Amino acid sequence: MISGYLKQGQVEESLGLVHRLLATVFDVMSEKNVVPNVSTFASVIGACSMLATFEIGQQVQCQLMKTPFYADIKLGSALIDMYAKCGRVVDARRVFDHMLQKNVFSWTSMIDGYGKNGFPDEALELFGKMQKEYCIVPNYVTFLSALSACAHSGLVDKGLKIFHSMESEYLVKPGMEHYACMVDLLGRAGRLNQAWEFVMRMPERPNSDVWAALLSSCRLHGNIDMAKLAANELFKLNATGRPGAYVALSNTLAAAGKWESVTELREIMKERGISKDTGCSWVGTDGVF
Predict the structure, then answer these.
(1) Where are the PPR-type repeats located (predicted)?
(2) How many beta carbons lie within 10 A of that of residue 24, not counting itself?
(3) 31-68: burial string, b at 16+ Cβ within 10 Å, e else
């Protein structure tokens, strides 16, 4: 039920079910001699991860420690991911360090957690350690996490080295996510021309994520001409599904004082019925969201 709610994006229903589950399920299972299995724990931890409810996650971990599944690699990796998504990097690392066995998914979860929480140096240190000391081969997602860490720390040369090693050393074919990450890496560092050349040399046609990454970098550095080119390519691929791209281009034009162009773009958005969804956040206290 929890997994079903999450897959359908029904966050409130999932949250309510998690609360009810924690209040009753283990007692009921105990009374009926029904033992929660790995899938039960994985679903609950996954819900806590998506809802960023680390307090509930801690309770689940306490229950898990009382079962034979406490050493399960899958559940250990899920706990690392859950704590990292809740911003509890220290807790995630504690789980990681106490795992009796680790696989590539465990390492990737920790590397990704470090990178997404503003610790790129720790992420890259772990990326090197897993290969040199433990001979664990990084997978598709591991490379993505490492490249993202490079992008957030401005390590362009390191990122390029990791990207080129994917196929040459590990026979892992880069996907669009990796190309988009490299464009973001080069763009953040102000190497917009190099980012453009990188896109032009791609063996496959760039998708909307690649162009969106370039557009974002153009906005950051105020390159209007390249922003228009990236936006036009993006709109060709997805004219209505990326409202954020219209806003990014509009903001780039506005920052340069191109108000006539801003007005024209806003009119196009109206004609196409494009509007950016209002953002929202979950705030929780004492179990109430």
Answers:
(1) 72-102, 103-137
(2) 10
(3) eeeeebeeebbbbbbbbbbbbebbebbbebbebbeebe
| Mean pLDDT value across residues 188-206 | 95
Contacts of 188 (CB under 8 A, 6+ apart): 151, 152, 154, 217, 220
Asked whether 115 and 123 are in contact (CB, 8 A), the reply is yes
Q: Compute the average pLDDT of residues 110-133.
A: 94
Length of the chain: 289
- The most confident of the ranges 24-38, 87-101, 254-268 is 87-101
Span 201-210, mean pLDDT? 94
- The contacts of residue 13 (CB under 8 Å, 6+ apart) are 5
pTM of the full predicted structure? 0.81
